[in-house]
Amino acid sequence: MSNLPEDRPEPVELDGVAPSEVSAEHAAVDLSVDPALDPALGPAVDRAAETPVLEVRGLTAGYGAVTVVRDVDVRLTAGKVLAVLGPNGAGKTTLLSTMAGLLPRIGGEVLVEGKALPNARPGAANRSGLVLVSDDRALFTRLTIRENLQVAHRPGGLDVDGAMDMFPALKKRLKVAAGAVSGGEQQMLAVARALVQRPKVLLIDEMSMGLAPVIVEELLPVVRRIADETGAVIVLVEQHVHLALEVADEALVIVHGDVRLATAAGELAAHPELLQTAYLGGEAVSA
Ligand SMILES: Nc1ncnc2c1ncn2[C@@H]1O[C@H](COP(=O)(O)OP(=O)(O)OP(=O)(O)O)[C@@H](O)[C@H]1O
Ligand SMILES: [Mg+2]
Q1: What CATH topology corresponds to 1-129+201-287?
Q2: pTM, whole model, 2 decimals?
């Protein structure tokens, strides 16, 4: 299983738990907060407070006639972080690209604050508040860090100072060309550039790609802080499973394009055998 994440748990005895039981038990988990269980909201919760910021219903995506990821459901209220996990080629990037409108949907819907996004219209998705931080970062490498932020800025988004508050390490690099800073700093800039666009939904694809683990350990808590302080919903595709589960509220495990598990992040962190079972699917466990 060379495509398991490097920091995966040691293989565990699966205790005869069939994958179908695991997914059946967890697939129905509602990713939103139940207002009735949140005393802070009180009994007179208005309908708007219940509307999820991001809702994905039965999303099926792929390339032309080839379906790559099937029937994905997500429901996240403000400030929630969802970790999307899965081996290489599972369909995670395809899912995020399709949500962002860069690829046409084969089926299903994506709604931001209850409003359905038109299919395959990245500009419309972006204007609705859905911002993708792609795994290639796509920075203007010849522009300075400050210029990259200024070019992307939208009314109501964090200004350069606000973005620097999230990423203080970038502050003394503002005048440096984006192409000349370290990989970690480029990744910070990629996320900061999303923040100045005032995202309601932030889709982050493998922010840790090519970065040293020590940098990843610094970056992921910022994701939590962004969700807590701006109320943005964050969908985080991440290979550093344990670090991702530490900052996420919910987790979705996709294998070969199928959702194998949808559960609370804490549940998955506490029971790594669930991840192991989901990754292995219906295959026999070999010694
Ligand atoms: N442009 C494309 N055209 C056709 N098939 C593609 C294209 N891009 C990706 N695929 C296929 O879609 C499947 C899912 O790929 P995707 O990149 O979404 O997976 P992933 O989960 O993001 O993987 P990784 O962890 O390696 O980033 C793979 O089988 C891949 O070969
Ligand atoms: Mg990918």
Answers
A1: Rossmann fold (3.40.50)
A2: 0.83
